[in-house]
Amino acid sequence: MRGGGRKTESTLLIDEHAFEATVLGGAVLGGGGGGWVEEGRRLGRYALEQGFRAVRPIGSLQDESLLLTVSAVGAPSAGAAVLEPQDYVAAVELFLKESGAKISGLISSEVGALGVVNGWVQSAVLGLPVIDAPANGRAHPLGLMGAMGLHRKPGYISVQTAVGGSTGKGSRVAACFKGPLSEVSQQVRQASVQAGGMVAVARNPVTVAFAKRNAAPGAIRMAVELGNRLERSRRFGARHAVREIIRFFRARVTVEAAVEKVTLGTEAGLDVGRIELRSGDSSYELAFWNEYMTLEKEGRRLATFPDLIMTLDLETAAPLSSAQIRAGAEVAVIAVPRQRLILGAGMRDQALLEPVEKAIGKNMGA
User: Fold this and answer.
1) What SS3 state is found at 152?
2) What rounded mean pLDDT belongs to the chain?
3) In this structure, are residues 292 and 34 in contact, taking their beta carbons and an 8 Å threshold?
């Protein structure tokens, strides 16, 4: 489940151009989730204004050094605008205070438009480097999917801090949770609902050696490469950009279709629903739980999470999240086999797909 032959040993220098490419590539790897492009730009630009300039390779730290995962937890339809940059910093500060852990670097929980820049503001303010080893190289709906297999360690005690919400609205949350990982992850999800839909989270330190085996080193570099290609190619039109993404991933499925109907609800703090599309005489369906979970053509399965399923606007080539899709839109749907992604250990646990099956009412067997 890792992209082959990609160099991960050099530092990624982040300027205005690289920042835009990172967010765009992250939006594609979000697979329908991973946060809004506008929020990724807002958070990343703030980080640059605070002096953030680089993402370091995992080999720049000693194997025994500790990495802290940072994330935003909640439903994309709520919008990450309920979070302020200071909330991300506060979550890390609260974690350091409550845990006493000596942290040497920060890693994002996933790659998405927002996830790919998570850690940048915290790094700029607190001086901790961001490391190119996100817990997962694509976006995912559940915290356990970005836990790098820690939930399988007997007796493991999770420590997670969550910050978000508005004091004026009575929804402010700033809490530390400790306990079994699955229970703590549920408590954090509940905290996101209480906070108005989203919380900034810091959680579960791991050693660099552990991250090398179980995280997704090089996934941020992949996002930058992908974003650069998308930026260059979409100047020649949306379809040209779609073809470039297909070449980048050697994607196996691509469909141009009109959106006929969107059904959207919220369950357990996550967006859940289905999108019905038509291309010529054929009908298609996307099922999502934040991220796209399945793509089907007239009932026949074409792709299943953690395969990457993404949608792009056929007028602008802009990546579209599941929460952005509207009836009447013309979109390209691209599916990429999981083997062509850089994925963390959480994507190798079939048991973590059982809650997805309950949420969307579909078998998640590949």
Assistant:
1) helix
2) 93
3) no
63-109 per-position pLDDT tens digit: 999 999 999 987 665 554 578 999 999 999 999 999 999 999 999 99
The count of domains in the chain is 2
78 and 189, same domain (yes or no): yes
Pull the structure tokens for residue 277: 């599309």
340 token code pair: 């062509």
Kindly indicate the confidence band of residue 5, based on its pLDDT and cuts at 50, 70 and 90. Answer: very low
Whether residues 199 and 246 fall in one domain: no
List Cβ neighbours of 311 (8 Å cut-off, separation of 6 or more).
32, 286, 292, 319, 320, 322, 325, 331, 332, 333, 334
Spatial contact of 122 and 92, defined as CB atoms under 8 Å apart: yes
Domain check: are 201 and 277 in the same one? no
Contact in structure between 47 and 123 (CB atoms under 8 Å): yes
Q: Which of 219, 253, 277 lies at the terminal end of a domain, its last residue?
A: 219
Say whether 327 sits in a helix, a strand or coil. Answer: coil
Helical (H) or strand (E) element with 105: strand 105-108
249 and 201 within one domain: no
pLDDT computed for residue 366 by the predictor: 61
What pLDDT, on the 0 to 100 scale, is given for residue 41? Answer: 94
Same domain membership, residue 301 and residue 265: yes
Q: Cα separation of 56 and 70, whole Å? A: 16
364 in Cβ contact with 304 (< 8 Å):
yes
Residues 120 and 20 in one domain: yes
pTM: 0.92
Residue range(s) defining the domain that contains residue 126? 12-219
pLDDT in tens, 14-26: 999 999 999 999 9
Average pLDDT over residues 40-56: 96
Q: What is the CA radius of gyration of the chain?
A: 19
What is the reported pLDDT for 81?
Answer: 52
Mark out the alpha helices in the chain (DSSP H runs).
Answer: 16-29, 37-49, 85-99, 120-126, 181-194, 208-214, 219-233, 238-249, 354-360
Domain endpoint, select from 219, 247, 273 = 219
Q: What was the pLDDT predicted at 6?
A: 47
Alpha carbon 253 to chain centroid, angstroms: 22
